[in-house]
Amino acid sequence: MVTRLVGLTGKPNVGKSTLYSALTLNIVKIADYPFTTLTPNRGVGYLRKKCVCKSLNVTDNPVNSKCINGFRFIPVELVDLPGIVPGAHEGRGLGNQFLSEISIADALIHVVDASGSLDAEGRPVDPDPENTIRDIRFLEEEYDHWLAGIIERGLQKVPRTKPSRASVEESLSHVLSGLAISRRHVEEAIEKVNPPDNIYQWSKNTILELAKNIRMIAKPMVIAANKIDKKGAEEGVRKMREAGYDPIPISAEAELVLRKATEAGLVEYLPGDSDFRIVNPNALSKKQLEALEMVRDRVLKPWGSTGVQELLNRVYFNVLNMITVYPVEDANKLTDKKGNVLPDVYLVPRGMSVREFAGLIHTELMENFLYAIDAKSKIRLGEDYVLKDDDVVSIIAVGRRG
Range of 185's domain? Predict the structure, then answer.
């Protein structure tokens, strides 16, 4: 599976830790995680997607994921990043430690208090929708200024004798490679900014604009408008949209309540559902019943869901542009060598060829690739075939099937 790391960030008291806890609460138990070693601030969340088992009219028994009521829950890796305050690029708070850690992520979830009830430092204030815009922009600006400083140092390594665009791209790619920023990211950003050929004519604004574009390309960000059950949240979400952002309204606290209640066997609820069912009302205390009804009345009814599952799905499927592909060994029975039906689902970037996909399963499959079979249509696929979302494929290679 192609791993993409998503980081959760935000200033103090916005509910980042609550969101991380809700996303990583293991209510979907899977035998073998695709991530072997997770540090304390890393955890596993789950994407929710319709499984192909229904359209293929089979009963599956997944191995690397879980199928519940026709939905696949696919594990992905999340990292809980340190909190940030304005002035981080100048060393305030955790400062450069935060900005360095944020760079390990392929995409970011920026958690914002949708009610605008926090000041710049995360202290409670009266609700003000303008605070939501400030909160979004300060993180962008902190990262841009920090990255601009690294770019400035990288430009000093460009050969002084007739520096070419290629030599600039090479030098910047080298100095930014440790931040999970590729040469393609650098090239695309330079193409957009189109700075003067002579780097000694680059102004600080030019460098800052380049940093901004690199950040937008290499570290795409999704805004999680949290605390939608609070006064002023609806106005805050509207304000963010008017400013050109596309926030996802969420209630991390409501999601955590529902997941904990599910784990305790008190309710039936799948992440992403628009409602829940109380299994045994008599087993709940009055306080628990009131908390669940509050979730229903303040979050699920007015907003349609807690938004948490939609948030994670958007990051992977829309922002990181990933698709799901099901490898099988037997294209007729849709099984692996052990007889498991639709055992695995892989997250891969859109545009991947079937031969490249074979290499994800095993390097020998790519090296000895002959062709693949579309298990749905039974048509042979050549090595240049570009995978589509929810493809089910069997890889045929010299000496083995995959």
Answer: 139-215
